[in-house]
Each structure stands twice: as structure tokens, then as C-alpha cells.
Amino acid sequence: MTDSPLRINALIVDATDPERLAAFWSALLGRAVVSRTGPYVWLRREDGLGIGFQRTAAPKSGKNRMHFDVTAADPAAEQRRVEALGGRRLTEYDDGGFLVMADPEGNEFCVIPEGSVELDDDGRAHYLG
């Protein structure tokens, strides 16, 4: 038995079209697609973390139980870039004050400003202005 804690090695996203999803996230994050193995398409590993896209026959259904938060100096500019790459804004989350986007298969992620994000007592952000 070891006393070493577990660490996250990679995040895997199910995808009906892993090539398309990998291309979207590659452009968004500036991580090249580096390999394809079986049903997986992998982005370049950075800071010890891998991101892969696994082919699945089932389309996404329902809200993600876990999502990415990506930081940007200018979230509004990043919203336009996400949309140009094939993503979309999810306005149903606007009440929370976060810029919530979806990738081409509908996986939710937040674009947050660099630095700390202030939250009110109900957990709402106020950086969208």
C-alpha cells in the first residue's frame, strides 16, 4: 500500500465525433492533436494533464455533472471565438452570472476572467456586466 495520493492523469470526454470535438478543443486551448489510439483522439499533454476524446455511440443527454472552466483576459472576445469555432452560448445559465458555453456536442464549459471571480452569497458571479 502507498501513502501517495491519487492524481488526475487525463480528462476524457465522450464524443459521437471525437475528431470534430478534438479539433474544436485543440483550437480553443492551443493544444495540438497528438495521437489517435482506438476510439481515442488525444490533445498534447500540458502540466501533466492529458485531454482525450473517446468515441461513443450515445449522444450527450442532460447537463454535465462536471465541466471545464477556462480563463480568458476578455471573456466576451472568447465568446465570439468559441462561436466561430462551432460552440454556442447557453443563455439558460445567465442568471448565475457566468459565461456558460457549449462545445459542438453540447458539453458545457465556463469562460471566466483571469484572476479571482467574486461571488455573491447565492454563488452568482457578476463579471458579465
Task: Explain what this protein looks like in three dimensions.
This protein is α/β, with parallel strands linked by helices and 129 residues long. The protein folds into two domains: 58 residues, Signal recognition particle alu RNA binding heterodimer, srp9/1, CATH 3.30.720; 70 residues, Roll (2,3-Dihydroxybiphenyl 1,2-Dioxygenase, domain 1). Helices cover 17% and strands 29% of the residues. Strands 1-4-3-2 form a four-stranded mixed beta sheet, covered by helices on one side. It has a four-stranded mixed beta sheet with strand order 5-8-7-6, with helices on one face. The N and C termini lie far apart (51 Å). The relative contact order is 0.18.
Q: How many separate domains make up the residues? A: 2
Tally of alpha and pi helices: 2
Pattern of helices and strands = EHEEEEHEEE
Q: How helix-rich are the residues, as a percent range?
A: 10-25%
**What global shape is seen?**
globular
Predict the CATH topology of the largest domain: 2,3-Dihydroxybiphenyl 1,2-Dioxygenase, domain 1
Overall radius of gyration: 16 Å
CATH superfamily membership of the largest domain, which one?
2,3-Dihydroxybiphenyl 1,2-Dioxygenase, domain 1
Major beta-sheet overview: 4 strands, mixed
Question: Which CATH class of the largest domain?
Answer: Alpha Beta
Indicate the structural class.
alpha/beta
Instruction: Kindly report how far apart the N and C termini lie.
Output: 51 Å
Integer average pLDDT:
95
Q: In order across it, which strands form the biggest sheet?
A: 1-4-3-2
Oligomer: single chain
CATH architecture of the largest domain: Roll
Number-wise, the strands total 8
Regions with little confidence, pLDDT below 50 for 5+ residues? none
